[in-house]
Every structure is written in structure tokens, then in C-alpha cells.
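Annual report, structural modelling task.

Input specification for the nicotinamide-adenine-dinucleotide complex:
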Amino acid sequence: MNLAQQIDQDGYDVRRFSHGLYIGGMWRPSSDGRLIDVVDPSSGAVIAAVPDATLEDAAAAVKAAARAAKGWRETAPRKRSEILRRCFELMVERSETLAMLIALENGKALRDARGEVAYAAEFFRWNAEEAVRITGEFGTAPSGTNRIVVDYEPIGICVLITPWNFPAAMATRKIAPALAAGCTVILKPASETPLTAYALAALYSEAGVPAGVVNVITTTSPGPLTFAMLADPRVRKLSFTGSTGVGRTLLAEAAKHVISCSMELGGNAPFVVFDDADLDAALDGAMIAKMRNAGEACTAANRIYVQSGIHDAFADGLSKRMAALKVGAGTNADTECGPMITRKAVDKIDRLVKDAIERGAKVLCGGSILDREGFFYPPTVLSAVSPEADMAHEEIFGPVAPITMFEAEDQAIAYANDTEYGLAAYIYTRDVGRGMRVASGIEAGMIGLNRGLMSDPAAPFGGVKQSGLGREGGQHHGIAEFMEAKYIAVTF
Ligand code: NAD
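The model returned the following structure:
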């Protein structure tokens, strides 16, 4: 069965989702009728087009979210919870189709796309469970004159902006807690991968999310439209996932209106392997931390530091595994490494690899752009990568594993912290004491200790330093980003 048949069978017709902004529960064209082409990164071919929203459309989306706000805020938590639970169930039912859609527009391998849909759906299940457990506080003032009541209220209308690398999960990681908290939202997904966001929008209405509670708009002018939405006094929250550069611009703009911001920004994760690590487990972990989404992940291992005693065995094992990966279109069942999102992304990887080689790195496998249609870069392992190389300081966002050798624990921690970012880090050692010591020495919001994957809706996701502000998921953390505390002093 081909993709089109599969999508038609499940009621997911790409063409249907290709023709509407989703505002106030209705599908509509942009006010000036302009469209954005959606490209298949495995071929470079245009596969669909979505509306290019204007300032007028953004204003309509805010208006729709404002109109729906009171009703949703007053909807009983139990009811909100049941609707979120239904979103989870529908995503699970449609998971194969959604995975195909992600593989098609993002390019990631189907197995990664399936993993993403499962992860994305879990945000609905988790927040359905959390929605009925939002509590307040009650106490006596130290002076004894009054009681202190703290109530948590929905923060208001939220603008949510997401990147292309996880088209489903980055959206549900924001939408689910916002809805659980009682907020209405406008989602602006990346224009490279809008089809998944629109397919999910159709699913929310089917699950019972009232019109206007979730609105979705795509645009090629994200700056002006976002600035206009932030200037509307009804908008009280900006939740952004994307690059640190854009995050800084948005923080500066939000400051003008004193709007609450959550910022999930870039990463530069170190992956540290000590001599006493279980070699096979470290290699398994490195393959996941490096190659999930072909390296296009904010948590991707960007720098691999290996202690001298295990260095050669690790480098040899990793290059054998990387070289064996099957490269191809994400929609092919046997693909293990799909294309990059754009030609520009491939060119950036190429620049970083050439720079590392010029500074003395040795190519163990891969190392140059593949001569084929689409935006492919082969799985690559480099050893003897200089800590001064550009790739040690910039996000590679591709299937390149740079290895640098170290001798002592202190040196590993110093290498790990030699970056402006602080999102994720990985440590492999059999010595739990050392693992905990190094984990506390590394400046990062999340640590994988003998694990290559840490993302979990039940745990707080986010970074320190230039990797962002705030947390998504976890007990209370994710929902708290969408709530405001109201303190009531009571005398009785
Ligand atoms: P990006 O910053 O270019 O774009 C992210 C989103 O912001 C897109 O929707 C884009 O259209 C929009 N945008 C761009 N300019 C804007 C502007 N001036 N005003 C408002 N919106 C604007 O990032 P990207 O290339 O799509 O994604 C990759 C980046 O995202 C990487 O840096 C990666 O590390 C980061 N990321 C972080 C996390 C996390 O949870 N910390 C998760 C995924 C991706």
C-alpha cells in the first residue's frame, strides 16, 4: 500500500490538510490566498502547499482563541482531562498514518517517526492525568492575622511556536499542558513541516476540543506575525522551541509587553565515556543519542569524549555501526538514516566537517556529501577532533559523530562545560559514584547516566545557560508554565 492509499484509508488526505489555516474550528485559506510549498527532503520535490498566513489571519486566530477562552477555562477539569485522553487515543489509533506523514515531510526514518508519534501522544495521556490534579495552597500568615490562599489559574491566551525536527511532539508537548491548565492557544508550526500540525488539528476537533481552543497558522513571516500577536494584550504567554538566536529575538520582543516566556532552545550535548563503561551499552547509547532523527535533535550527542583506555575500541565499534546504517527516504521501511531537512542544513554539516578535518580530525567513515537527489549526508565518524573545531561549539544537527580523547575526569567535565549551551549530557561509567559526581559537575538541564535517551513526558525537559528557560513535562513543571498563581489574603 502506498502512502496516498494509506492516508486515504485512515481519512488522512494530505490534500485536505494542505488547504486550510485552522482558526476557530474552521479550515480557511490565508486572507491573500498565498501558499507555502512543502518539500519532500528525500527528493527535493514539492508535495503539498499550505496557506501563508497574513497579519489579518494572525489577528483572527487571536480573536478565535479569545472567544473560546472563557468556555474552556470554565470547563470542568475532569471534562478537559477526558478530551485530552481522547486526543491520546486518537493519536495512537492513527499512529501509522501520522508517522508516514512525518517521514514524508520531515524525512526522518519511519522507525524514528513511529517513536515520535508514540512520544507525542504520551503528552496527551500524561496531561490528561495531570489536569485533574492541579491543586492550590492554604496556610496561616506568620503574623496570625489572616489565612493565605493560593489558587492557580490559566495564564491566558498562549502563542506556541515549534520547530521542524519533531513536528508532532514539539506541538503536543505545549498544547497538552496548555489545555490541561485551561488555556487556549495559537500554534505556529515550522513551515517546513506543517502537514503533521494540521493533521493533528483535525484530530483535536474529533476528540472534542471546542472550536477556537486550538488554532493553527503557518506563515513565511513568523517575525511580524508573532510580534503582532505578542502586542495584543489578550496574549499572556509565549512558548517557543527552536534556535537560541530566534529565542533571544523573541525574548526581547516579549519584554516590551512583559509576557511570560518559556524557551526550549539549542543544545550541544557532550557524550562522555569512561574507561570502566560497558562498551556495548555505550555504543548502543551513542547510536541512539547521535542517530535518533539522523542527528537532527536538540538533545543529539554533538561531542563525544572518550577516555584513553577505551578510546580505540569505542571509535572502531562506533564507525562500524555508523557505516552499516542504511541511508534512504524516510518513508522506506528499511531506512535507518533519512535526509536532512534542507540543502542549507547539508551545506552547514559539510562546512563543519571540512573545518574539523582542516584542524586535524581523522575520517573513520563518511565525511562528504552524497552525490544523489535529495538532501543527504552520510553517517560520519571523526576522531581526534580538536576542542577548537567549530563543530565543538555549534549544533551539527546531522549524522556526524566527532570523537575527542581525554585522560582525567576533571578534563572530561571541563570539555563538557566548554559551551554556551546546557541542554542535555550523557555519561557512561559502571561507577555510580563517579556518574553522580560528573552529572552534578556538568552544567545541563538533563543528564542520561548510562542512557542514550532521556525524553519522557513524566520528567521535566529543558536546559540551562543559552539552552533556555522553563521546563516542559514532568510533575507540575509543564502545566505550571501555563498557570499564574493568585494569592488571596483572607481574614475570617
Ligand atoms: P528556528 O529557530 O529557525 O525556528 C523555530 C520556529 O521559529 C519555526 O516555527 C520558525 O518558523 C519560527 N521562527 C523563525 N524566526 C522567527 C521569528 N523571527 N519570530 C517568530 N518565530 C520565528 O529553529 P529550527 O531550525 O526550526 O529548529 C532547530 C532548532 O531548534 C535547533 O537549535 C534545536 O536545538 C532547537 N530545538 C530545541 C528543542 C528543545 O526542546 N530545547 C527541541 C527541538 C529543537
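The chain is about 40% helix and 20% strand.
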